[in-house]
């Protein structure tokens, strides 16, 4: 009688594993911070009368949110490019292994 031992390969199906890169995580983080910054600016302007400082809040928050948004989109593009290169490398490697 044989007994199967649960390993990481047998316990988790391959289709449910997702490869997450550092750039993907960084992209998600910067996009979230950008949203939080812009939301905080909007809510603060609704809740309190800021008087003369209101324009400074809009400018600083708008620029900060825009910069973080652009960084998040850049990191997202970079993560997708990295995944594409990895797939091409793995295909070439499998093809070369089969040739030998």
Topology readout:
Layout: H1 8-11, H2 22-47, H3 54-99
Helix pairs in contact: 2-3
Provide keyphrases for this structure.
mainly alpha; 100 residues; single chain; 76% helix; rod-shaped
Please describe what this structure looks like.
The protein is 76% helix and 0% strand. It is mostly helical. Helix 2 runs antiparallel to helix 3 (54-99). The longest helix is centred in the C-terminal third of the chain and has 46 residues, at 54-99.
Short description:
With 100 residues, the chain is mainly alpha-helical.
Shape: rod-shaped
Q: List the total number of helices.
A: 3
Name the assembly state.
Answer: single chain
Supply the helix-strand structural class.
mainly alpha
Q: What is the distance, rounded to the nearest whole angstrom, between the alpha carbons of the first and last residues?
A: 38 Å
Strand content: under 5%
What profile does the largest beta sheet have? none
Radius of gyration, taken over Cα atoms and rounded to an integer in Å:
23 Å
Q: How much is the average pLDDT?
A: 76
Total DSSP E strands:
0
Helix residue percentage: over 70%
Unreliable parts: none
Following the backbone from N to C, one meets helices and strands in this order, namely: HHH
């Amino acid at each position: 009688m044989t007994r199967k031992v649960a390993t990481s390969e047998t316990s988790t199906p391959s289709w449910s594993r997702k490869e997450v890169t550092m750039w993907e995580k960084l992209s998600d983080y910067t996009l979230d911070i950008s949203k939080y910054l812009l939301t905080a600016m909007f809510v603060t302007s609704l809740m309190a009368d800021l008087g003369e400082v209101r324009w400074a809040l809009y400018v600083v928050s708008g620029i900060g949110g825009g910069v973080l948004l652009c960084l998040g989109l850049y990191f997202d593009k970079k993560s997708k490019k990295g995944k594409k290169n990895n797939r091409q490398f793995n295909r070439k490697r499998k093809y070369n292994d089969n040739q030998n």
